[in-house]
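Researcher: Here's my situation. A collaborator sent me these components and asked whether they could plausibly form a single complex. I don't have experimental data yet, so a predicted model of the whole assembly would be a useful starting point for our discussion.
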Amino acid sequence: MSTVSTVSTVSTMGLVDVAFWACALVAVAMGVLVFVVDSMARATYALAASFVATGGALLLMQQSYLGVVVVLMMVMEMAVMAVYMVMFMGMNPALMPMSMVHSHRAAIGVAVVTFVALGSGAVLVPWPERRGSPSPDVTEALGTAIMESHMLVMMVVGPVMVATIVVGVLLSSSRTRYDRMGDDLDQPALDPPALERREERR
Amino acid sequence: MTLETVLLVASALLAVGLYGALSQQVVVMVMMGLELMIAGVLLALGGFWWFLSPDPSGQVLLLVVLAAMTVEMATGFAVATLLHRRAGSDMTDMATELHE
């Protein structure tokens, strides 16, 4: 009985290892491809694949909620990026060759030094033993934490997200009511609103 | 899968992202580099959580990093849109008003 369970544990560990290395390889290789491929569309897809693999690695560490959120968020984000490219670059992004870099060698040098420093730290530091064990339902534990003991985090993250929406709209809108009617909104409108202009054109 | 291997992969992601953030000229590509760096941070935090102290507080930290990623992305797109409207360009090298 114990032999069977040992064998099954070993095979499970083996599977997890294989899956982890597959995710790791895809994540890093696709991350490199982002800056190697010569079109922005391909770079976007490569980044999406890299993030899906990162989400997969998180899933292997039992973070079912955060892993799935990473995958969903990044897939949506890459869709937004594709729309963005078509909107602003006015090109067929898949066909446009592109290589726009500066300080290429310095950047490679800094990246290699960073990797060597962090990697040697990861290998050489005597990491402590694991303390405690994960709760049976990790997602439920996270939900309970942000609604009970760590509620402050949720209370801060919420307004930050709202502020981000406001900032995003303000920065990216071309002409707001403050542009038309002054900072106190008490000046006569500088130009007719879009509806009137459309009627004039008719 | 050990903590060391997870951290090595995270370091690789961070280094690749750093290269992109430093070397790319198009704002969107710089943002992709930053995203890769944050992905590395996420993976490293996930590894620390799972291999060292798997209690919910660590996961809350991961959630905060994820939120930071969202904020970075949304604000980055908005700034790139603003740059495009004002200067008609999406290159970092042309956004030098503060330098001049």
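Model: Some features of this prediction you could bring to your collaborator: The first helix of chain B runs from residue 3 to 23. The helical segments of chain B are 3-23, 27-51, 56-87.
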